[in-house]
What we know:
503 residues, Glutamine Phosphoribosylpyrophosphate, subunit 1, domain 1, 6-stranded antiparallel β-sheet, alpha+beta, globular, 26% helix, Rossmann fold
Amino acid sequence: MSHLFEDNGAGQAAMAIDRHSQSFIDDDKLHEECGVFGIFDHDDAAAFTTLGLHALQHRGQEAAGIITFDGKRFISERHLGKVGDHFTSSKVIKKLVGRTAIGHVRYSTTGDTILQNTQPLYADLATGGFAICHNGNLTNAITLREELIKDGAICQTTSDTEVLLHLVARSRERKFIDKFIEALKQIEGAYAFVGLTNKKLIGARDPYGIRPLVLGKQGNSYVLASETCALNMIDAEFVREIENGEVVIITKDGIQSYKPFGKTKSRPCIFEYIYFARPDSVVGGHCVYDVRKKMGAELANESSVEADVVIAVPDSGLPAAIGYAQKSDIPFELGIIRNHYVGRTFIEPAQKIRELGVRLKHSANCHSIAGKRIILVDDSIVRGTTSMKIVKMMYEAGAKEVHMRISSPPITHPDFYGIDTPRRSSLIAAGRTVDEINEFIGADSLAFLSIEGIYKAMGHKSRNSENPQFTDHCFTGDYPTRLLDRSGQAIDKQLSLLVEESV
Length: 503
């Protein structure tokens, strides 16, 4: 679906509502919130944005969108599905005329998976057109939204990102940057914003730096992206990370940096290192692949066991399993083969099919398993259902013993900053001991990496409870911001107000 927005106050074209069906096979993993990308003043802005979004596809697979500015108007292409489903056609890229573009891949943590919520979002303001995309989650968005609607605002989406558009539009400040900063000071939670006006590319990161955002340069053009892997994709030079609480404005005159929140302590999300960031990305000066190997090595230090082979649950458990094997001097083998070509299935979800469903994604390599004592390494356990199925698969493949090792602590608290976690009652580690979890998954033994082990892998001696270096609330319950929308069960609404399936 293509949209054209004249930069003169014209209204936005109507958008169709759509949904896609969810696979009945729950992969029992945490899902990331989104990925953002932007490039300023480049001959191939749309094509490079498409490539950047391809590199960030792991951060969200439900929807993708790009908006460009051609000097007079904003041009939008937004679709449900993956980047490659819609943006590989030269016809689509040619529609996206302009030297500046922003793009977004989405996993819906706030708001339904419908076309209205697909980003970037766009609005005509008194100062001209403004497009915005967002990685993260605002913890006071529902409260602000209700206040805005009572005051006459008309909301077109169920996304928390739209709240920022309304706050910018209502600001009485004269300059756009002042409007934008005034709006930022009213929101809470985690965010990495990439925005676009007729003259500016904008980047902003929340005061704690919970969500990542980096600055790069491709030739003479500046680039903003969620991860360095997107810079690598377009052969862009890494310049630096956008600092926590920083706003950058990129124009033809260069870059201006603003620090509207003053000096604040950075607390990036620890799950970027454990699971979400691509292994070849560098986050906060740390190579993600190396960090995950160190987590595996710390896990071996803490919970060694006699075994014949170390096996990873692919793909996220691979680096930690390699680190575990190297530290314990136990051979590493590919005991589970992942099928990378699994799409959505329309098979009737009968019980037998549900039981076999895990094999669509993972198959046992019996030759590496049969008759052996195995150490099975994964990065996390959420509900425990997939871990149970994989442990069962190992025994069915002939494993003599199965020892499950997890390269992160037990997840005991839900996330409200952009990670799609279930309610606390659905987290298997909430209110259960390690032995009780192990009884559920059916392994010979189970061990998690300690919170201290996580910090050691990150180069810190230990976690100082008075001064933690990371946002690690899923393990500790230590949320760095207040959670305003949790009062009155508002957080459970998640802005999912639209229910229509068609217009």
